[in-house]
């Protein structure tokens, strides 16, 4: 609802309205209105339009000001010429709205006639400045004449809102709470906003808007810069009436039932997924391997064969080798020659194999050379001569006279020398013997040399590892040979992955495939506390009834062996996995999940 504005009409009318409000408690006649002729009412309307346009002139652009001045001139000219004629008497009494609509139509017709007459007496086309100056002079003349003829009417100003015809409605529907008629300035808004779509009048728009649009329509069409699309886009669009739509019976009950059914289905899916995970029934593990069909033509041959297959290889024109558009060039690339990387790991050549007699002969020759060199040093005085090596067999020959004089003393002397030589020999051997740390270092050095030649990988599949002795042998031998890898215990089968040097992997293969007896089983021992094997029930050596498990069909298979660039596992370890997904997730870290799939496919 628009805000209240002070009444700017005739004081006599305002006093009449006040008197009516005071006498509202008793039946009162309609508000007093002043009867006016058609000329006076038209003059009053023109004066209001002129005052309104004059008030908004300061806030408009030059083009808008010129257009507004032209409208004012036409309205004032129509009022000054006195061309307005009295309307024909109606056959029956008209309502105030119909009266205002009829008067507005007459005003538009007379304004159009005045504009046509003015256009007939048009002068030659002037410049924009001259046109503006002429319009300004014409406005001043029309304003002066209008003020002289309509003194009191020209002083009244129009309301700030949309102009509407000042017509009073004395009907009870148009009165307020105190049975007071609507103000003329509020009549236009009341006509637009009252009633539903079915009760609205045909002429719902304000008369002032219709008059202004009729007066300015000719100017808009004559303007070469006028765009009708801008007028259409700026026009207000009435919001369509929305009818009441009632929901059918049971709509939300059906929606609730559907949501509850969907929730039950989701719970069933989750329960089934949990059961499948516990039972290890993943479908992807049971799928057979599908070998893709070979393509019609390989991608590296697409540029050499004119076609999509190899059927026309015998046709000379179908092979792009000697043609102009071939990708084969006449140049030959000679890459830089590099030494093969395996030469640096090539072992040293082994010495020539000798028989026992040849080995003894070589040993005698070496000792003879050493003795001869020592004798030469003694002759030259570089070394003292060694003491005679007296034994009981050469006692009389070396110490003949002394042995005859005192054989007991000579024998004791010989025994002391023999014991001294034996002690020196043992001390020398002990000095050459390696300590435990040196032995371990030597073993580690041999393992490093073996691993430097290349890292080899071997994967084994064992059906059952419930016997503790088998698990112990697998674990201890892997640590002794310096292997890295993992042993995965699973209810279906067990997987052992090792990696290390060539010799270590070869010895471990002999252990797994030949030396170990996989069909053995014995009475179980009490497991250690805190061991992971205690938690796995499938690693028990006995059945549920207490009898030993039958391992007669137990076996070990070599799944895959090969060479890789470097070690994947940092150490040796074991892991218990109850499902295939856990095992695959564990091996996915080392990019060996395909080994589990390959072992699963083996029978």
TrEMBL record:
Ranges in a coiled coil: 97-149
GO CC annotations, alphabetized: U4/U6 x U5 tri-snRNP complex
Record-annotated Pre-mRNA-splicing factor domain positions: 223-435
Principal location class: nucleus
Record keywords, A-Z: Coiled coil, mRNA processing, mRNA splicing, Nucleus
Localization of this protein: Nucleus
Pfam families for this protein: PRP3, Prp3_C
Domain of life: Eukaryota
Record carries keyword tRNA processing: no
Boundaries of every Small nuclear ribonucleoprotein Prp3 C-terminal domain copy: 458-599
Keyword Zinc attached: no
Name of the protein in its database record: PRP3-domain-containing protein
Species name: Aulographum hederae CBS 113979
């Amino acid at each position: 609802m628009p805000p209240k504005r002070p009444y700017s009409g005739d004081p006599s009318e305002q006093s009449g309205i006040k008197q009516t409000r005071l006498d509202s408690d008793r039946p009162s006649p309609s508000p007093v209105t002043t009867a006016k002729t058609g000329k006076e009412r038209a003059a009053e309307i023109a004066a209001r339009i002129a005052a309104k346009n004059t008030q908004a002139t300061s806030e408009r652009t030059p083009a808008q000001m010129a257009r507004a001045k032209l409208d004012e001139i036409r309205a004032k000219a129509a009022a000054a010429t006195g061309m307005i004629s009295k309307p024909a008497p109606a056959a029956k009494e008209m309502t105030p709205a119909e009266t205002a609509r009829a008067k507005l139509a007459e005003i538009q017709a007379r304004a159009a006639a005045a504009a046509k007459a003015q256009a007939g007496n048009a002068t030659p086309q002037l410049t924009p400045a001259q046109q503006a100056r002429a319009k300004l002079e014409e406005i001043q003349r029309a304003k002066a004449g209008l003020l002289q003829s309509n003194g009191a009417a020209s002083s009244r100003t129009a309301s700030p809102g949309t102009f509407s015809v000042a017509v009073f409605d004395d009907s009870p529907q148009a009165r307020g709470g105190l049975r007071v008629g609507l103000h003329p300035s509020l009549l236009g808004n009341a006509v637009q906003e009252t009633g539903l779509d079915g009760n609205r009048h045909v002429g719902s728009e304000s008369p002032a808007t219709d008059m202004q649009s009729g007066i300015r329509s000719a100017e808009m069409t004559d303007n070469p810069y006028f765009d009708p699309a801008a007028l259409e886009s700026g026009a207000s669009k009435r919001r369509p009436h929305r009818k009441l739509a009632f929901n059918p019976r049971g709509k939300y009950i059906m929606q609730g039932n559907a949501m509850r059914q969907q929730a039950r289905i989701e719970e069933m899916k989750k329960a089934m997924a949990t059961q499948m995970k516990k039972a290890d029934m993943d479908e992807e593990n049971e799928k057979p391997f599908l070998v893709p069909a070979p393509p019609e033509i390989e991608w590296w041959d697409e540029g050499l064969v004119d076609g999509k297959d190899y059927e026309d290889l015998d046709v000379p024109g179908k092979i792009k080798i000697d043609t102009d558009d071939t990708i084969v060039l006449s140049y030959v690339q000679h890459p830089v020659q590099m030494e093969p990387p395996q030469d640096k790991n090539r072992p040293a050549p082994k010495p020539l194999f000798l028989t026992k007699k040849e080995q003894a002969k070589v040993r005698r020759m070496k000792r003879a050379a050493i003795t001869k060199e020592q004798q030469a040093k003694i002759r030259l005085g570089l070394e003292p001569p060694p003491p005679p090596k007296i034994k009981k067999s050469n006692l009389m020959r070396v110490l003949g006279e002394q042995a005859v004089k005192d054989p007991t003393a000579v024998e004791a002397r010989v025994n002391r020398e023999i014991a001294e030589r034996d002690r020196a020999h043992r001390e020398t051997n002990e000095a050459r013997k390696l300590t435990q740390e040196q032995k371990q270092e030597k073993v580690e050095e041999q393992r490093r040399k073996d691993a430097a030649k290349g890292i080899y990988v071997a994967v084994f599949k064992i059906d059952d590892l419930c016997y503790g002795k088998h698990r112990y042998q697998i674990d201890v031998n892997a640590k002794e040979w310096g292997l890295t890898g993992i042993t995965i215990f699973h209810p279906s089968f067990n997987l052992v992955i090792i990696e290390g040097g060539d010799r270590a992997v070869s010895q471990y293969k002999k252990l797994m495939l030949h030396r170990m007896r996989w069909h053995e089983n014995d009475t179980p021992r009490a497991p250690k506390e805190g061991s992971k094997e205690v938690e796995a029930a499938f690693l028990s050596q006995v059945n549920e009834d207490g009898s030993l498990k039958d391992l007669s069909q137990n076996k070990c298979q070599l799944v895959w062996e090969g060479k890789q660039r470097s070690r994947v596992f940092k150490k040796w370890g074991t892991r218990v996995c109850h499902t295939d997904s856990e095992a695959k997730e564990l091996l996915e870290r080392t990019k060996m999940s395909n080994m589990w799939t390959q072992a699963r496919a083996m029978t």
